[in-house]
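pinging the channel bc i need a second pair of eyes. not urgent but kinda urgent?? the chain im working w is below, pasted from the shared doc
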Amino acid sequence: MICSALRVVLQVLYNTVAPAASSLLPFFFTLAALGMILGTKLSRKVGGDASTLVRQLPGWGATLLFALSPLPQLVRNLLEPQSLEGLSVGTMLLALLGNALMVPRALLVRDVVWLSGTTWACVAGWGQLFSMFRSVSATTG
């Protein structure tokens, strides 16, 4: 489960850059990287610290998927401005506001995974808004 979550993150990034290419390269890269990371971390830690590391990996995988989800839309907005016809500025603002409201709570709880996910989602939300205002369409105004 952990490996598949991280593989999907790299596959999303790979398909954003090269959408027509179909390759297992991200899977093998993720498998090797995960093996190296777990090997070095587990060799240095004993007892409960290693189990904490293993428990946090699915959270980091889900956070990376959540944080990178606006990336394909952002690339498409910048490359094809006519694709903006179905997007709503209000929806983008509400999503940005919802993520921004969670930043103080993540700081209060001191959860690095949550903080990094909400902060990056705010940055990506501003990127989405920038791409919408940069490419003004006659249809959307």
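so Residues 38 and 92 are 37 Å apart (CA to CA). and The first helix runs from residue 2 to 17. — does that match what u expected or am i reading it wrong
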